[in-house]
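Action item from last meeting closed. Structure (301 res):
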């Protein structure tokens, strides 16, 4: 925890001084939204990211440094859909900043711009399910990033009308670059179509669907609930049935179930970065890394 805390502080100190003259102070809950806000805002925004790419955004402590950053913020950019259910409300309640309160223009929830997958008929967190409002990990589908970018550009312009030309220019550049990259990734990833995929946590559902891979199972019995001995046994037979399946996990997922599986036989694990580095081209680099990592393991003998 200490390591990740200091990492976030490093990020905050790196990002905060980007522009003394920034018109908007943006507090991003996850680094994908920090990267997007930087790409769309340019020099008119100073961006802070609450979580590093190496931190599980489902779990975060409402530390004093984060509360202070929310207190100063003009705009919060978060995933919503319950991803930050354990901490965002506590942060905003402690920060007492009416500009970014729920329902105000200063609180932007990216999930409200997209159609979520796996939305249950009713919200039930009783069994430890951390996806009680639907799957909130939609940033791994770049087509949805374009949708969120369009909504976020409108919000930035609403909050800072004088920056309209700046936001429009950045949005256009982002959209052009992303459209070109999507074509490139889809061409590169053609060999992945139909590849069976097992997820540790349902973090890659949107990526799997976008690239036409086949979702055959998940190690966690429910999102956020660690796999037990029975789940590991079931996973062994699933791997037996799908010997070419790629098992996708984030660097911060508990490694012990993966090590246990590896001791039982060959498992094609792929560690994917769960989020981008928060920088202007962070999203493109992140998607590049994921597509290449999948291709590399899928081609391996
Ligand atoms: Zn999740």
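Sequence:
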């Amino acid at each position: 925890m200490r390591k990740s805390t200091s990492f976030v502080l490093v990020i905050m100190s790196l990002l905060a001084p980007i522009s003394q003259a920034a018109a908007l102070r943006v507090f991003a809950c996850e680094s994908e939204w920090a990267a997007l806000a930087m790409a769309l805002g340019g020099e008119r925004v100073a961006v802070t990211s609450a979580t590093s790419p190496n931190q599980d955004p489902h779990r975060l402590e409402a530390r004093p440094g984060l509360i202070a950053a929310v207190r100063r913020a003009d705009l919060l950019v978060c995933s919503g859909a319950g991803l930050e259910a354990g901490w965002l409300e506590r942060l905003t309640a402690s920060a007492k900043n009416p500009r970014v309160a729920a329902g105000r223009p200063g609180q932007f929830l990216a999930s409200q711009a997209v159609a979520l997958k796996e939305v249950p008929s009713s919200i039930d967190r009783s069994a430890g399910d951390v996806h009680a409002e639907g799957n909130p990990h939609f940033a791994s589908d770049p087509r949805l990033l374009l949708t969120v970018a369009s909504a976020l550009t409108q919000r930035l312009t609403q909050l800072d009308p004088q920056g309209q030309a700046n936001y429009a220019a950045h949005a256009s550049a982002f959209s052009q670059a992303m459209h070109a990259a999507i074509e490139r990734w889809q061409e590169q990833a053609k060999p992945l179509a139909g590849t069976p995929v097992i997820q540790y946590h349902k973090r890659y559902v949107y990526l799997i669907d976008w690239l036409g891979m086949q979702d055959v199972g998940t190690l966690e019995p429910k999102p956020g609930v660690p796999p037990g001995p029975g789940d590991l046994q079931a996973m062994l037979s699933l791997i037996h049935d799908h010997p070419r399946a790629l098992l996708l996990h984030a660097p911060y997922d508990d490694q012990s179930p993966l090590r246990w599986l590896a001791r039982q036989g060959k498992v094609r694990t792929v560690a994917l970065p769960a989020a981008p580095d928060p920088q202007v081209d962070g999203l493109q680099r992140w998607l590049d890394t994921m597509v290449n990592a999948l291709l590399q393991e899928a081609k391996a003998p």
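Note appended to the action item: Confidence is low (pLDDT under 50) at residues 1-10.
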